[in-house]
Amino acid sequence: MLDRLPVLINPVSFSERGKKLTGPINVSDLTRLSDALVDDSGVVNIDFSFDKEGRRPILEGVIKANLMLQCQACLKPVEWSVERRFKLGFVISLEQADKLPGDCEPLLLDNESISLNALVEDELILALPDFPRHKEECIAREESVAEVKEDNEKQLDPNNPFSVLAEFKNTGD
Ligand SMILES: [Zn+2]
């Protein structure tokens, strides 16, 4: 029988014990990630090994998933294969983070335990493309790509430099 994946991980104790975590996580349990998806069915497979480098707890991990994103050209679903490999060094201060080996990304611990799902989700979100597109068989033409881009820019209106400029003009009189 397979061990169920824990909800919380304790990096210090897991590293002491050289703990390994493998198994599936439901995509629908990753709520921040599923906001970016067309379909939140399916699973994410993780293969995590906790270890120590010197006295530093580290995690080497692989996350694999096939996620349903929305093609930014034709707006139809596009299946996206993700294979994210990473190495994290757990630290409790920025000084410790500076001393990590170059191949290690720092993860600052506020608490003894952290959420496994949150960690997986953060790594997956980093792995997603900003503008997913069908590699082939995309029905969109170049014109509709331009339209989508325009729409995205309109949504960023509060940060639009032109609206700031307009305010300056008004107060200047
Ligand atoms: Zn497409």
Features:
single chain, 173 residues, alpha+beta, 2 domains, 5-stranded mixed β-sheet, 7 strands, 31% helix, elongated, binds zinc ion
In short:
The protein has 173 residues and is of the alpha+beta class. 31% of the residues lie in helices and 32% in strands. The structure holds zinc ion.
Furnish the topology, listing elements before pairings:
Layout: E1 8-9, H1 11-16, E2 20-26, H2 31-34, E3 43-53, E4 56-70, E5 77-91, H3 94-98, E6 105-108, E7 114-115, H4 116-127, H5 142-155, H6 161-172
Parallel strand pairs: 5-6
Antiparallel strand pairs: 1-7, 2-3, 3-4, 4-5
Strand order of the largest sheet: 2-3-4-5-6
Total of DSSP H or I helical runs spanning 4+ residues = 6
Shape descriptor reads elongated
What is the beta-strand fraction?
25-35%
Distance between the termini: 75 Å
Structure description:
It is a single chain. The radius of gyration is 21 Å and the shape is elongated. The termini are far apart. The longest helix has 14 residues, at 142-155. The protein has 173 residues and is α+β, with helices and mostly antiparallel strands. β5 (77-91), α3 and β6 (105-108) form a beta-alpha-beta unit. The protein has helices at 11-16, 31-34, 94-98, 116-127, 142-155, 161-172; strands at 8-9, 20-26, 43-53, 56-70, 77-91, 105-108, 114-115. Helices cover 31% and strands 32% of the residues. Strands 2-3-4-5-6 form a five-stranded mixed beta sheet. A two-stranded antiparallel sheet has the order 1-7. The protein has two domains: 8-135, no CATH class; 141-173, no CATH class. The mean pLDDT is 86. It is built from six helices and seven strands. Bound molecules: zinc ion. Zinc ion binds at residues 71, 73-74, 76, 78, 133-134, 138, 140.
